[in-house]
Amino acid sequence: MSALILVTGGTGLVGQAIKYVIETEPEGSRFGKKPGEKWIFASSSEGDLRDAEQTKKLFEKYKPTHVIHLAALVGGLFKNMKYKATFLRDNTLINDNVLHTSHLTGVTKLISCLSTCVYPDKVEYPLDETKIHLGLPHESNFGYAHAKRMVDIANHAYKDQFGSNFTSAIPTNVFGPHDNFDLEDAHVIPALLHKCYLSKKNGTPFIVGGTGKPLRQFIYSRDLAKLFIWQLREYDDVEPIIFSVGEDEEVSIKQVTDAIVKAMDFKGEYTFDTTKADGQFRKPASNKKLLSLIGDFQFTPFEKALDETVKWFLENYDTARTGKNRKTT
Ligand SMILES: NC(=O)c1ccc[n+]([C@@H]2O[C@H](COP(=O)([O-])OP(=O)(O)OC[C@H]3O[C@@H](n4cnc5c(N)ncnc54)[C@H](OP(=O)(O)O)[C@@H]3O)[C@@H](O)[C@H]2O)c1
Question: What is the DSSP letter of 177?
Answer without folding.
Answer: T
